[in-house]
Amino acid sequence: MHYITVHDKTFQPFLSEMEIQGAVRKIGKSLNQDYKGKQPLFIGVLNGAFMFCSDLLKTVDIPCEITFVRLSSYDGMESTGEVRSIINLQEDIAGRDIILVEDIVDSGLTMQKALTYFETLNPKSVAIASLLVKPDCLKCEIDIKYCGFEIPEKFVVGYGLDYNGHGRNFKEIYQLRQE
């Protein structure tokens, strides 16, 4: 087994590049079907979703646009549940079909607050596409229409996910190794 070290933590393989790309293609296929005849605006949530967003858009063959926002709620390995910042959109989303692209939904509180914010801008619809969801960690009801994987309550890095800014560059996803 190939372990990696990020800062002071050791991580073990969790999801392979092949597994991740299979889930991305599956989500892309669903989006192509559900948004046929529409022109959705994808909103990637930085920093974590940049890889997922890039790969996902390569599988989407409907007319669409993409933009990015930054939401922040993590401190080290814990979700604070508080959205510390939202860098506002330049685009007018009123009357548009919006797809929020997220790397991971943990407590759900960040996405819930983001949805509340986006709803004030009067979009036609808002759907969430998240590569990872931790159902056991959800603290609120949230509809994640497009989900790659439901995962256990373990800290993960790689494929855009980080530990204090490091570890985003791996093609695979690793989980914290339990000693």
Labels describing this entry:
four-stranded antiparallel sheet; globular; 179 residues; 12 strands; alpha/beta
Explain what this protein looks like in three dimensions.
This protein has 179 residues and is α/β, with parallel strands linked by helices. The protein is 22% helix and 33% strand. It has a 6-stranded mixed beta sheet, sandwiched between helices. It has a 4-stranded antiparallel beta sheet with strand order 1-2-12-11. Strand 1 and strand 2 (9-15) form a beta hairpin. It is globular, with a radius of gyration of 16 Å.
- Please give the radius of gyration in angstroms: 16 Å
Q: Segments where pLDDT lies below 50 for 5+ residues?
A: none
Mean pLDDT: 90
Number of helices: 3
How much of the polypeptide forms β-strand, as a percent range?
Answer: 25-35%
Q: Structural class, from helix and strand content?
A: alpha/beta
**Overall morphology:** globular
Termini separation: 15 Å
Strand line-up of the largest beta sheet: 7-4-3-8-9-10
Number of strands: 12
Largest sheet: 6 strands, mixed
What sequence of helices (H) and strands (E) makes up the elements?
EEHEHEEEEEHEEEE
Fraction of helical residues:
10-25%
